[in-house]
């Protein structure tokens, strides 16, 4: 059962019904909350898979550089996809 009008757009990322919320095939309350950290959940939302340890390291580094508001410009500019070499430099620096 879908909530809302049945003729609305549909997404494969998340669905819900009266009893549950399903994200990428996982029950939100039973499978995800308390079992994944933010990085793992973010990667799951974007790709549909849980990240490997190297992927987690890169994602965490990107999140820190994006959230940084200090006196120097961040290592990884937004959006990352416009300058992928910067992402590789960030990864090599670790």
Brief description of this entry?
The chain is mainly α. It is 43% helix and 9% strand.
Largest sheet at a glance? 3 strands, antiparallel
- Average of pLDDT: 77
Radius of gyration: 17 Å
* Global morphology: elongated
Number of strands: 3
Within the largest sheet, what's the order of strands? 1-2-3
Give the strand content. Answer: 5-15%
Summing up helix and strand content along with how strands pair, one would put the structural category as mainly alpha
Distance between the termini: 47 Å
Could you list the spans in which at least 5 consecutive residues all have pLDDT below 50? Answer: none
What is the string of helix and strand elements?
Answer: EEEHHHH
Helical amount: 40-55%
SS summary, helix count: 4
Model description:
The protein has a 3-stranded antiparallel β-sheet. By secondary structure, the protein is mostly helical. 2% of the residues are buried. It has 4 helices and 3 strands; from the N terminus they run E-E-E-H-H-H-H. The model has no long low-confidence stretch (mean pLDDT 77).
Write the layout of secondary structure elements.
Layout (H helix, E strand, L loop, with lengths): L13 E3 L4 E3 L2 E2 H5 L5 H10 L5 H15 L16 H10 L1
Antiparallel strand pairs: 1-2, 2-3
